[in-house]
Amino acid sequence: MMLVGMHEHYECAKMAPMTLERALAIVQDVVASAPAPVSVFVADGHGELVAAATMDGAAPDTRLNAERKAYTAARSDAGTTRELAEKVRDDPVERVSFDPFFTFFLGGVAVFENDVRVGAVGVSGLPGELDEELAVRAIERSG
User: Fold this and answer.
1) Greatest pairwise CA separation for the chain in angstroms
2) Domains of the chain by range and CATH?
3) What one-character-per-residue DSSP string does the chain give?
4) Half-sphere exposure in the Cβ direction for 93 (13 Å, CA)
5) Residues 6+ apart with CB under 8 A from 61
6) 71-119 residue pLDDT tens
7) What pTM did the predictor assign?
8) Could you count the other beta carbons within 10 Å of the beta carbon of residue 6?
């Protein structure tokens, strides 16, 4: 058991972090750019919270949806929830074998630094294409 714990610690130490500074910049960009109320969730590479916001007037369920989108993009092998949905569209067995917290709604986008996944962004509250666009633009502008 100790060796497993040490290995997991080693893997975490090797992963580049999603910094709080970058996560806050992404949240602020989404909030400033959204044409209507949304929730935004920025996760680290494990899908865990780094920063989040729910705009006044956003539906309460958008919080969990944004979290699930970020979690999925952080933990899957796809760059976006859109890519993952397309990958498994014709394979119902594959879809049901995923982590039950995964979602295939558009709006989850992985964040990479030097080709290393450092986290992900989930946006919810608008049609999926717009959620995804807000996430992509915020990631690009955050550096």
Assistant:
1) 50
2) 17-141 (3.30.450.150)
3) -HHHHHHHHHHHHHSPP--HHHHHHHHHHHHHH-SS--EEEEEETTS-EEEEEE-TT--THHHHHHHHHHHHHHHSSSSBHHHHHHHHTT-HHHHHTS-TT---SS-EEEEEETTEEEEEEEEESS-HHHHHHHHHHHHHHT-
4) 0
5) 124
6) 999 999 999 999 998 988 887 777 677 788 899 999 999 999 999 999 9
7) 0.86
8) 10
